[in-house]
Amino acid sequence: MKEPRLISLARHAVLIVFSAIAVYPALNVLSISLRPGNRLRSTDLAIIPADWTLASYVELFTEQPFLTWLGNSLLVSGLVTLTGVALASIAGYAFSRYSFTGRRAMMLAILTTQMFPATMLLLPLYILIARLGLVNTYLGLLVFYTSTALPFCVWQMKGFYDTIPASLEEAARIDGCSRAAAFWRVILPLAAPGLVITALFSFMTAWSEYIVAAQVMQDEAMFTLPLGIKGFQASLSSQWGLYAAASLLVSVPVVILFLSLSRYLVSGLTLGSVKE
Amino acid sequence: MATVELRRIEKKYPNGYQAVREVSIEIADGEFLVLVGPSGCGKSTTLRMVAGLEAISGGEIAIDGRVVNDLEPGDRDIAMVFQNYALYPHMTVADNMAFGLKMRKVPRAEIERRVEEAAEILAIGPLLTRRPRELSGGQRQRVALGRAIVREPKVFLFDEPLSNLDAKLRVQTRAEIARLHRRLASTVIYVTHDQVEAMTLGDRIAVMNQGVVQQIAPPLEIYRRPANRFVAAFVGSPAMNFFPGQIADGVFETACGRKLPLREPAGLPDGPAVLGVRPEDFRVVTGGEEAAFLEVALDVVEHMGPETMAHFRVDGQDHVVRLDAAAAAQPGDAVSLGVQPEGLHLFAADDTGQRLN
Ligand SMILES: Nc1ncnc2c1ncn2[C@@H]1O[C@H](COP(=O)(O)OP(=O)(O)OP(=O)(O)O)[C@@H](O)[C@H]1O
Ligand SMILES: [Mg+2]
């Protein structure tokens, strides 16, 4: 049935308005990053200003420790991703397949941690890290980020394993696999989409995080990108051009990650294995 | 090839449910044993204990004389075909079949030879490079069979392998499994709730109910001499007709007073009993020769082609008689029925329903 014209128009109008709201800030940042000098506000409505320049970008790489921060961020986020995927893939499997005492209680406990706003956990986690002597270390950040990302990842992986029929592992075990081998050779390859989501989530948790990093890291040479970028926004003289340029560059790895992993995000990998 | 012995095995699930009770079955080398019974009777549980997928709560299972209770499934030298096929979705058909051999470190050339041979037997050669999702249900089933065959195991285990196929394919695959069994002469345990599969495939059938084996016997013996009322009712379609009543002085009398003289009353205790008659064991009595057991008016008449199934009611119970198609029976016809002497089954009226004659 064809939809009445008025409804169709209204539908598009709403979508356009919301798209504009979503896109406007990003375009604005692009615009600021291209302006010469340090202009935050401008009467010019053009997205690419007439007198555009890449000066801010050049300065980032030549005069600012941007590359160091980038390296730090990649290191921390990469490690968080690895740890998150490794732990969540195993823990999720245990929750999905084994019945053991305390299983329900543990799952509820994990879920409960997700109900507090992350900032509430800041103080206790900071004390923990301070006691461990991990302040101003990458390991400190790693512990912090992993512990905040892991609960979601474990639940997500458990949910994913739940969709993989148990008869697949049983077939593998009859084919001569130990439980571990069946997990490794049959279940894990099928859980790839779940692993990708877990990896993305872990990475994102660490990549754009500011508040925790500001507590744990003190040495500028060890700053992650969000920390470093915030430094451009000083109380007296903010360097808006640098701030905007760096913000855009921060999102590049995330975009690349999303694009390269998107083909794994399609579900239906187990299609055809069993008949429901 | 091997013998399989179940010695008083028990299964109690962690939630306390006793799914299998003291099941003892001896399966001979090369025998095709069918486990049959209604849904939830513990067939799959029994099979999965043989496979090693379910822990055994009591008793022993021995394959080729060796107790396997504590062996991993992979070390029992069995192959299993699952109801849902359980093919590895990320592997090609060839890799699916080769997987078990690879895990056992069989030399590559040997793996190829066996996969090719199985593919030929099952006519799935052209499918070897496909993934399971690119196959039809029937093709998946053949691949699942192939994966079991290449292993050349001591024992084949099947859990309702045909129940996901449509009726026509089911008949074909059933014949295929029978052919395979003759060709490989292997020991098979086959679980189904379909009595036609049980009757046609099994060398012997074990009928289970509520975790207990009711009778183990060759198909025809199960059909002709069911050990109790449960087996009698479960095997045969349409089901056996039952008439509650009394035995007295060599005569069975139904609750509503119809009398049937018993030919061999010796050893039959007087008292309450249940008479069982299969639909084909009634005979139409046309005057004179003997007194009819029942005089009934036909209710629903189903013409099947080679035969006619006619329903009638006695004491408010529905019963079925098989009539000669040539008789062209119509609803409302009055028919006098006797019972073939060899088709007369008597069961205890108590809960055990043990066979009396
Ligand atoms: N993991 C389990 N925990 C508790 N009870 C179970 C479990 N698995 C099965 N059961 C129960 O054990 C009984 C036997 O189950 P089983 O799967 O062996 O039945 P089945 O004879 O194969 O039936 P079907 O024809 O429906 O497959 C059922 O009543 C079932 O509810
Ligand atoms: Mg079953």
Spatial sequence of strands, sheet with the most strands of chain B: 6-7-8-3-9-10
How far apart are the first and last residues' alpha carbons of chain B, in Å?
A: 38 Å
H/E series of chain B: EEEHEEEHHHEHEHEEHHEEEEEEEEEEE
CATH superfamily of the largest domain in chain B: P-loop containing nucleotide triphosphate hydrolases
Low-confidence stretches of chain B: none
User: Helix fraction of chain B?
Assistant: 10-25%
**Kindly state the mean pLDDT of chain A as a whole number?**
86
Total number of β-strand segments of chain A?
0
Coarse structural class of chain B: alpha+beta
pLDDT < 50 stretches of chain A: 268-272
Tally of contiguous helical segments of chain A: 12
If you consult CATH, what is the topology of the largest domain in chain B?
Rossmann fold
Radius of gyration of chain B: 24 Å
Described by its quaternary structure, the protein is heterodimer
Describe the structure.
- The complex is a heterodimer of chains A (276) and B (357).
- In chain A, helix 9 packs antiparallel against helix 12 and helix 11 packs antiparallel against helix 12.
- Chain A has 12 helices and no strands.
- The radius of gyration of chain A is 23 Å and the shape is globular.
- Chain A is mostly helical.
- Chain B is of the alpha+beta class and 357 residues long.
- In chain B, helix 2 packs across helix 3, helix 2 packs parallel to helix 4 and helix 3 packs across helix 4.
- Chains A and B meet through helix 7 and helix 8 of A and strand 6, helix 2 and helix 4 of B.
- Magnesium ion binds next to helix 1 of chain B.
- Adenosine-5'-triphosphate binds next to helix 1 of chain B.
